[in-house]
Fold each of these.
Amino acid sequence: MSTVAVAKSSFGWVRDLVLTELGIVLDEGKDYLVESRLLPIVKREGLESIEALVLLLKTGRAPVALKRAVLDAMTTNETTFLRDTTPFEVLQTSVLPKLIEARRAKRKLRIWYAATSTGQEPYSVSMIINDHFPELLGWNLEQIGTDVSRHALDRAKAGRFSQLEVNRGLPAKLLIKHFKKEGQDWQLNDNIRKMIRLEEMNLNGAWPVITGTYDIVFIRNVLIYFDVPAKKKIMGRIYDLLAPDGFMFLGAAETTLNLDERFTRAEGGRGGCYKRAEPR
Ligand SMILES: C[S@@+](CC[C@H](N)C(=O)[O-])C[C@H]1O[C@@H](n2cnc3c(N)ncnc32)[C@H](O)[C@@H]1O
């Protein structure tokens, strides 16, 4: 017989912590998730149970790093290269050509990846830029990737991917051109890896590393985890920092509908691409 390893009160405490700190909603019945994500921490810390971990955190005497580790463990870092394909096609065939035309005089382009995870998304775009828009490499091209998960960011910074990870979405041509086999893994070449600046940042807090306006914002497959007030707040902040002719990409299951009507679908709504609506 299976036993529930997370007491209701501990689940409630973790759920409140994750909502307050990250804006992430853990629905009732997600105790299995709390269990599977926190048990490795319980073991590592030599604690007896999740209850003991929660109790320690509740005292306020736990090291900051432990709370951070718990929050990090509760994030879902699922991602793939060229995830969903269409957004990257829209980017390559329409969005980048338009922005290059519009920014040709200033030769400056800024892209923000707001939930970078382990890096597959920004590195997919960087390979597209390198292979199809070499002109941009001579511009002031700023690409910043942020995520609240230090664990995911460390992996992104390393640019080292398993066979399984490169098998998911990455065409063989790109693998051979941009990676080197190292043992069981594939190491991304430095010219692509260095195109992205990676910073730890909580979307549900201050955004110290995000300054000025951005031409493209990728915020894909992260808002789905947030409650409506958090989604609205983040959408509003992105609206304010998006260039008037800039583009925002959302995940396939995400929309601005009922969250911020100042956005409108762009490029025929393909690939979750949005822009600022014309003022009425
Ligand atoms: C499912 S991944 C999406 C990765 C990528 N954008 C994609 O679409 O493939 C979601 C990412 O959002 C991050 N995340 C969750 N809550 C966050 C928050 N409050 N602030 C910043 N990043 C957060 C997680 O750490 C995770 O890496």
Note: The pocket of S-adenosylmethionine is lined by residues 22-24, 75-79, 83, 115, 117, 121, 147-149, 152, 202-204, 220-222, 225, 251 (CB under 6 Å).
Amino acid sequence: MGYFKDIIDGGLSLIEGMGVTARRLFQPLITVQYPRKKIPLSSAYRGHIELKIFEETGTHKCIVCLNCEKTCPSGVIRVQGEKQKEKGPKTLTGYVIDFSKCSLCGLCVEICPTSTLEYSREYELVGDTGADCVFDLMLRLAKQVEQREEKKKTQGIAA
Ligand code: SF4
Ligand code: SF4
């Protein structure tokens, strides 16, 4: 009896699987010829963290509180700052993350009191060694600020 039941179950499973295949046949293709074509990233996508640029200041708002560094469960954040004046606040001088060990838990983004951390939209990252996954966020920020300035100039010329 069990033998025939197995055959019937197997047959039903096969029909169900073929049904899924048949339905997919008449739906639009979702495969794209990457990298020639790309699909829009989900708004929920998380790349490595980076420093946000604020319109009003043209740069980040990090106050070197070290909350992110202390909170990171993977211990991959290194923040450096120095005082410009003896009694003044610290200014951010270095922000490095080792993305190879980041779990993208988001705690650093959530705990930042100035909301100056965000997820990048990077997904085309490659590296031969772990060192290639160590990112200098200050350097990235400087490049982004430069690109924004260039873009503004170009738009100004075009207008
Ligand atoms: S997302 Fe999580 S693991 Fe990654 S740097 Fe932030 S706190 Fe650390
Ligand atoms: S938590 Fe935010 S403000 Fe504090 S050190 Fe990290 S990035 Fe800077």
Note: Residues 49-153 form a domain with the Alpha-Beta Plaits fold (CATH 3.30.70.3270).
